[in-house]
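Hi W.,

Here's what went into the run:
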Amino acid sequence: MDLTREVILAGAPGKRLPRTHLPRRWKARRTTYAALRRQAALAPITVVAPDPTVRGLSVQALAETFKVKRAGVLGVPFLVVWLPKVSAGETQDEVALLRLFAHPERVQVARTQDAFDTFVQSLIAKVEVCAERAATGESVDADAPRPSPLDNVRAIVAATKDLRVSTGRLSVPAIATLYGVSVSRLAKWLGRSRQALHKTPDADSVQRQLEFFERIARLRAVLEEPDDFRRWLRMPNGAFGGKRPMDLLDEHRLQVVADLVDDMLTGSPG
Amino acid sequence: MRDVASFAHALSTAPTISLNAVLVRIVPGLALARRVPPNFLYTSGKPNRFNPAGVGCVYFSEDEETALGEYRRAWRGTPGEHQPRTTFYADVTIRRVLDLTEVSTASQLGITRADLHAPWRGARVLTVTQRLGHAISLQARVVGIRYPSDAAYERIGDLSGGTLPDPSLITGANVVVFLQNVRAPDRLRILGPTRRPLQRWP
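Here's what came out:
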């Protein structure tokens, strides 16, 4: 779970790379593309200088390499593509360039030293916050709950079977009813539009996120009456410093509530 | 002091105790007793009082009374508080445990009573105790921590009218074991109805 505070710079031999001005605790390391490709895990920020004249160093080749790379607690690493000079023949439209990447939101194109400095400083701040979140158990891009020791306990899993429709999919209306909230509020928790949830209440695209609510509803293995479960959701809870589980759902902190339910059902002291 | 690097340094000389005990967990009975029990040694890497996310730990109480206090606190105000319960036991032998119920040991590490009972669920940054746990995960000497039960602390606080409890009154303790640090002859076994344990580690 350690965060490696490192910026890797990779370019073709002899290629000029931007200068780095890093805060304390952060280090810069220069490497080759070949070494970069061999590395199982990357640093949170990697700077690359593509070179279309060298085999394997085109932007497309880099995009392929980065598709599968991960950076420890951060998950998908940040990438800065250094393109300081663009000749007329190799003009790179930024949209076209970003389309090549599996995670365009993690890519920055820097064309000047000033822009590079600004991007790197901003990315370092993002990495620090993302690492902090990951360490406290709220991963940055969690779209489903983490595995639980209760996943194979049949009596626990059975307690939420009424949240699924006949196809086996989790149902938005069933979850909204159990939680005693409108579909609009559930949509807010999921970061979706109400219309989208109404249209396809058991859509594939929301199934993983809905698992958070199924996980929390496992409490019904003990609180069998739906009213008791709803009351628990709305009770101030000492484990959350007096906040109600519903407050945390409003803050999109679904995993934190799911973790408490796991601990209650497994008797783990806190 | 109190950052991961300082804790890691302090752990190399921190006093430890050996623990040879049967630890306890109480779980809701109706849901679990008749079926397969949960995998107590499974760690999903979720954070807890002494570990950041990604560090595999298991937590137990030192005796039934403390485990019951923890259970009751978790289910307080719900019908679960007064439902049948099941008790599981873990037979534990660990040579090096940090005993934070000892004020001198905690003080040596710069850990205060407030740190030991600080809320950690949903904290946006790592708590002091989670930073200590992170440091423990980076070394091999210390394998576990014995610490005062927060439920016991709260109970004494309630009895004393909400004032800060007298530390000497808090008798319940919990134990956290860092699974990756457990090496034979240290061991942890979840006891079952026969001589064969339900689970064991390593």
